[in-house]
């Protein structure tokens, strides 16, 4: 399903987008906290500092922790039941990984900053401990007994939310689940199996099984569609299965964005159904170049590309490990602008954080 959000309605963007070589989401469009506080975030390539003894998941800082905030991605559940990243300002701490998981607990510290329409994923009163095995890039999460007090329909969402929240940190690729010190081989309510090697983002998120006929001859891809809440739009990752005959992952991602989400999803895509790639995408030094037909302009008469369309494209393509930047051409030409009138002559990179919330 392909629909078009007109950008004429007035709303506060929770996303604060930049369309430049520095990324999509910029600082100048964020509202300042009241009272003003210093806000920082982990830079690209910066990790949660740990020791090989697995006793510490800390980051060191000479700054005053009481006055500084760290922008952290928390995977919460939206009103449609999707697991969605919301980037929120959390207090500066030496245990950023533990704090992130603690903010996934219902009625926990996230309550005062929880965006409207979203809820935490872990059962109330659950306590957590997080240790990082640096050598294995493994985060070991140890929950209290209250962890088992969830509804069956939330089981996979819990696995996805915890895994994707912790793997935002550069030195975490897998997550091991424990309860009271004992590793979980399956979830306590619905029995979902947990790999003894830990869970990673390869598990997918918001998995859409629609149209899957032959799992053995298909593969997973994660693309980003749009959802709307109280006049604001945000990006929702959806893992879909595509046939192995559909060509490269790049072509398959573009095809899924054009095809759009399932009709029952309450999600939309900015891509019109007549959008086409005119050439085979090329990749060099992590930069993919895409040459579209003029349908990529959508309803714009000028050589202008929708902000939301470009963001969905960049977020989806940079889920591929070999893609870091996206360059867009139309009929072989690069004289294109975004809705702010800014030139898109330079490649666009993935933002550090997605769906940044302003207060």
UniProtKB/TrEMBL annotation:
Alphabetized InterPro entries for the sequence: GerMN
SMART domains: Germane
Superkingdom, natural source: Bacteria
Domain GerMN residues, every copy: 97-188, 250-339
Compositional bias per record (Acidic residues), positions renumbered to this chain: 36-58
UniProt-annotated stretches for the region Disordered: 29-67, 340-359
Pfam families assigned to the protein according to its UniProt record, in alphabetical order: Germane
Coiled-coil region: none
Protein name: GerMN domain-containing protein
Organism annotation: Bacillus spongiae
Top-level taxonomy: Bacteria, Bacillati, Bacillota, Bacilli, Bacillales
